Amino acid sequence: MEEKSRTIKPKMITKSHLVSSILFLLSYSTILHHLQAQPSTQGFTCTANQSSFPCQTYAFYRASAPNFLDLASIGDLFSVSRLMISKPSNISSPTSPLIPNQPLFVPLSCSCNSINGTSISFANITYTIKPNDTFYVVSTEYFQNLTTFQSVELVNPTLVPTQLKIGVDVIFPIFCKCPNQTQLQNKVNYLVSYVFQPSDSLSSVASTFGVETQSIVDVNGNNIQPLDTIFIPVNQLPRLAQPTVVPSVQPSGKTERKGLIIGLAVGLGIAGLLLVLVTGVWFYREGVLKKRRDVERDDEKQKMQFSAARKGPKDIEVNLMADVSDCLDKYRVFKIDELKEATNEFGENCLIEGSVYKGFINGEAYAIKKMKWNACEELKILQKVNHGNLVKLEGFCIDPEDANCYMVYEYIDNGSLDSWLHGNKKEKLSWRTRLHIAIDVANGLQYIHEHTRPRVVHKDIKSSNILLDSSMRAKIANFGLAKSGCNAITMHIVGTQGYIAPEYLADGVVSTRMDVFSFGVVLLELISGREAIDEEGKVLWAEASGILKGNVEEMKVKRLTAWMDKVLLEESCSMESVMNAMAVATACLHRDPSKRPTMVDIVYALCKSDDLVFDVSEDGLADPQAGRQGAGRCIEVVGLGRSEEVVIDVYTMEKGRTKWSVKYYLQMNDFVMPYAMIKVLSFIEGNNEAGPLLGDDEKPR
């Protein structure tokens, strides 16, 4: 190859080339500096052994149209109640409507999580994918850049972002941080997650939160860019200025006042005339519409009858099956002939109660319920729950002849709790059995409240919907009124008198706390043996409200002894255990739903009541009723700091009255204390061999 062919002739550097080069270098420098100053798009790193994790913190959120203009929808998005948002946000009522860009503080449970060997701090929020959702859309529009789609991909490695199925649950990691020890010493109690807006300046953000500009720079650096998530160090949350109606300015001067009076008189006259006209038109229109609706209703009925006559049984069955197509893979679809044969044509000799029949199919006993309404919603809820304290749905059937739906459940041998407490059974329930029933129901409710997304509210907890199996273990039945998703308002109030929570009856507020209230009533039934509402219409929870009032323990015991079931007094059960259960019931029945305990707290408290049933004698720890071996059902926390170690006392029968001190190391997800307790309990009860259960330094795994 010739030399000149390898020689490149230099180009002339024009003025335009020079300007372009300078602009490129400046923009490149800015981008590079921004990338160096900000954390990875996958989140903020943390130290796993930092004692301040986990912590309660907050995110600054703005109401937005069209989906998030009320606290209920925002609460469901972040899996918190409306009250948990309204109080820190300075909103007087949790049912108040919001306006676009209205500022809010949303609570977060922030933890340090190990992802692919890197510790990242975020709050786990579970979101159910809807049509047209993508990681990017949900991150930027719904969660308003409090996370990034890269972070979502990181914590959901099994999901393909371009192949998201409607209904799948996705974890969205909301960026958050917990104060370190130095910050805590400087009285920084929260690092509030805040998305820096294009219109923001450091000084404006500092003014909003009532902090110094430098304190924001100290935490986040000095190169904050629009849409970055930053953290605002505060001692306490600032009082947000919520929008109010601004009164109009009244004109001054005689002429203006005169004009105002004339204007008001004319306006009121016109308004009165319009009111009369509108009222007349409305009454006329209602009369016409009523006649039209009656005609349309008759026409529709005739059309349905004509359509049903023309369609064959197979056509109707196919249409109905389409509504429950999601359930076909999980449940057995029974034929109507099978159910008729099993129940002797739904004869009275097979009737259990109401519209529930007992039937045998291939030698197995089933409870077959004829539904009085469309069962699609109940099927959709039941297909996502599976717990030992919930009655199991085995399958369903749709009768093509009359379009009736039948639900086929496992058969529960011993009937309802209601029949045991208020029926004519000669055998009465011991206190220990009643307490175990309460714990079983609480466990079932804890499962549907805490481990389903969106959370399921049963809405009809009562003694007749609690069934007892052959071992007297309780199972929750009848999800006909259940609702998937909470913190909502409904105008359609349904339920059983005596069990309905006041806020639901008054305002239609649907939340998990209404189940807590109903559970409190059931607990009162177990303690007293009385029905939730008497023949005179007096409700049990109102009658029991004053039993534990006052500070004199002797008076409390005296009132409780006079009120409780006489069967329990004859049994000489532990009054301390009954008192503890009564305290739990009283807490469940608090008029303010936000002050009621969660089912997690209730399970733990009732376990302590169960522990008190044991009698300590010279022969060691004895179960007076069952002679049960192994550790007690409950354990007691004797020391808990903000560190990862919890010290727990465990009593064992094998060693008589010896008390073993066990160290348990909190795991990443043990933010709520009772979860840690349940983990240790499961470990201990699984080791009932002779000898010590655990050494002093053994670590449950």
Task: Explain this structure.
- The structure is a single chain.
- With 701 residues, this protein is α+β, with helices and mostly antiparallel strands.
- The protein folds into 4 domains: 44-234, no CATH class; 316-410, Phosphorylase Kinase, domain 1 (2-Layer Sandwich); 417-613, Transferase(Phosphotransferase) domain 1 (Transferase(Phosphotransferase), domain 1, Orthogonal Bundle), CATH 1.10.510; 627-685, no CATH class.
- Helix content is 38%, strand content 17%.
- Strands 8-12-13-11-10-9 form a 6-stranded mixed beta sheet.
- Helix 14 (431-450) packs antiparallel against helix 16 and helix 16 packs antiparallel against helix 20 (575-588).
- The radius of gyration is 32 Å and the shape is globular.
- It starts with 14 loop residues before the first helix and ends in a 16-residue tail after the last helix.
- It is a single-pass membrane protein.
- Residues 260-614 form the Protein kinase domain.
- This is Protein kinase domain-containing protein.
- It comes from Dovyalis caffra.
The rounded distance between the terminal residues' Cα atoms is 73 Å
Q: Structural class per helix/strand content?
A: alpha+beta
Write down the overall mean pLDDT: 75
Strand-residue proportion: 15-25%
- The CATH architecture name of the largest domain reads Orthogonal Bundle
Largest sheet: 6 strands, mixed
Which stretches are poorly predicted, pLDDT < 50 over at least 5 residues?
A: 1-16, 18-40, 245-256, 291-314, 614-701
CATH superfamily grouping of the largest domain? Transferase(Phosphotransferase) domain 1
Q: State the helicity in percent bands.
A: 25-40%
Instruction: Please provide the count of β strands.
Output: 24
Here the CATH topology of the largest domain equals Transferase(Phosphotransferase), domain 1
Shape: globular
Widest sheet: strand ordering:
8-12-13-11-10-9
Q: Supply the number of structural domains.
A: 4
Give Rg in angstroms: 32 Å
Could you name the CATH class of the largest domain?
Mainly Alpha
- Please tally the helical runs, counting DSSP H or I stretches of 4 or more residues: 22
